[in-house]
Amino acid sequence: MANQHSSTTGSSATTLLDATVAAFDQGQAASPQEGMSLITDWFSSIKSNHTVSDLMEPLTELRDELQAGAPNNARLAQLLTYLADRTEGYAPKAEGDMQSRLQTLATALRNFAGQLSTTV
Fold first, then answer.
1. Residue 63 in contact with residue 39, Cβ under 8 Å?
2. What's residue 89's pLDDT?
3. 101: Cβ contacts below 8 Å, ≥ 6 apart
4. How far is CA 98 from CA 25, 48, 69, 91, in A?
C-alpha cells in the first residue's frame, strides 16, 4: 500500500503559501518573472475554489501590470494591499495552521506593498 495524502490540495496550498511568503521575505523585490510564476501557480490553485474566486481579478491585474514592462509601483502596492486585506479576511475561516500561514502571507504582502510605495 502506498502512503498517500488524501488532501493533496492542502499540501500544495501550503507549499504555494510558503513559496509566496519566501518570495516577499527576501528583503528585496522579487523579480517580475518570479511574480509571474507565482501568479500562474495561484491561478491554478484558486480557479476551482469558489471561496477565493474574488482574487482572480486582482491577480489578473497584478499579472498585467508586471507584463507591462515598466510596472507602476503605486499600482502594484495598491493591488498587493488589496490581496493582503482579502488574505487576512480568509484567515479566520481557515483550518489548522493555515490560519497563521495566511496571516503571515498577508503581512508579507502588506510589507512588500509598503516598500513599493516608498519607492514611488
1. yes
2. 92
3. 14, 17, 18, 21, 94
4. 18, 19, 34, 7
Place of cell 507565482: 38
DSSP 8-state assignment for residue 3? -
The kind and range of the H/E element at 90 are helix 73-90
Per the structure block, which three cell numbers stand in for 76? 502594484
**102 C-beta neighbours (distance < 10 Å), count:** 21
The model's confidence at residue 5, banded by pLDDT at 50, 70 and 90, is very low
- Tell me the C-alpha distance between 8 and 74, whole Å: 36
The whole-number pLDDT of residue 10 equals: 55
Grid cell in block for residue 17 = 503559501
pLDDT in tens, 14-47: 888 888 888 877 655 567 778 888 888 888 888 8
Question: What's the pTM?
Answer: 0.79
